[in-house]
Amino acid sequence: MVMEYEQVHGVTFDSIVTAPRGGLEPASRMSQMMGFEGYQVITVEGANSYDENDERTKVMNVLPIRRELIQGKNALLVDDISDTATTECAVAAMLIDQGANHVAKANIFEKPGENLMGIAPEMSVFKTNSWIEFYWEAHKELGAARKNLINQGASLKQLKQLENNFMHMLAEMDDNPTIATQEMLHAQVTTTDLSLSSL
Hints:
By secondary structure, this protein is α/β, with parallel strands linked by helices. The protein has helices spanning 2-9, 24-33, 67-70, 86-97, 138-151, 156-175, 182-196; strands spanning 15-18, 41-43, 74-82, 102-110, 123-127. It folds into 2 domains: 2-127, Rossmann fold (3-Layer(aba) Sandwich); 135-196, no CATH class. Strands 2-1-3-4-5 form a 5-stranded parallel sheet. The protein is elongated.
């Protein structure tokens, strides 16, 4: 996908840019696949495309990165999902303002029905309008389950069992890196939680 884009457009990417949290994991993996060094991966701070009361309300506060980091560079802007597209468009505009030579957006998923900006990413692997939860986000469910068990007075043995069960689940999902819905992850936690009640 990226190599084809480079050939068609006559550019060679020399930087990967991402915004936490969703883009961190795919950006890390993409940088390894492209043979990039750590200094070639830039994390943008302050990007947020959701309002706490209305997820379709644009809330943008992208902090500019240092101009010398991006000036004259061809930047690949990597994120997990392009839905409202407000974050990626704001980050792309900031990169251009800071002197980037070329910016292209690459996502694992594109959600055309959610796009508020009318600008599709240049590259995406899948298109869907379903809710997506990636397997590397399962740690949020682990944190919630752990907190719940602590509030119930769980023993150290129970907490360790919860973590062990979750690590096994993540290992299985990493061997088969497909998406996991929020409901599926929640079901895994519920099953784990119930299994601990007998310990």
